[in-house]
Design brief:
Blueprint lengths: L1 E4 L4 H12 L5 E4 L7 H11 L9 H6 L11 H10 L8 E3 L5 E3 L3 H11 L1
Parallel strand pairs: 1-2
Antiparallel strand pairs: 1-3, 3-4
Protein name: Arsenate reductase
InterPro entries: Arsenate_reductase-like, Thioredoxin-like_sf
Pfam families: ArsC
Length: 118
């Protein structure tokens, strides 16, 4: 299992604490220091069945100057822009051992990951 985190994020700290409490092994990726590649982010989005603008953090997206149409024609532009400014990517993103990928910001999603992996 891998979790993309920003250590300054309370949701990320909650997620890792829950995984630790459940005794679940995982690899941490500090995605601000080690941004995903375009291919990695595209793969994560495909596994979640989401578009890049669905996982973009609005304030960070504005701050990064990303002002693109939210349509299929601009999907690759969105992904490239988010890779260039990884703070725009929602967190924490957990990829379970079975390849299931979720954004674990809410307690229910996080609990589901713990149940499946625990």
């Amino acid at each position: 299992m891998e979790i993309w985190v920003n250590p300054a994020c309370s949701k990320c700290r909650t997620a890792t604490a829950e995984l630790d409490a459940a005794g679940i092994a995982y690899t941490v990726r500090r995605y601000l220091d080690d941004p995903p590649t375009v291919a990695e982010l595209a793969d994560v989005l495909d596994r979640m069945r989401l578009e890049p603008w669905d996982v973009a953090r609005p304030a960070e997206t504005r701050a990064a100057g990303i002002d693109l149409p939210k349509d299929a024609a601009h999907r690759d532009d969105w992904i490239a822009a988010m890779v260039a400014a990884p703070a725009t990517i929602q967190r924490p993103i957990i990829t379970a051992t079975d390849g299931t990928t979720v954004i674990a910001r809410d307690a229910e999603t996080l609990a589901d990951v713990v149940r499946r992996e625990g």
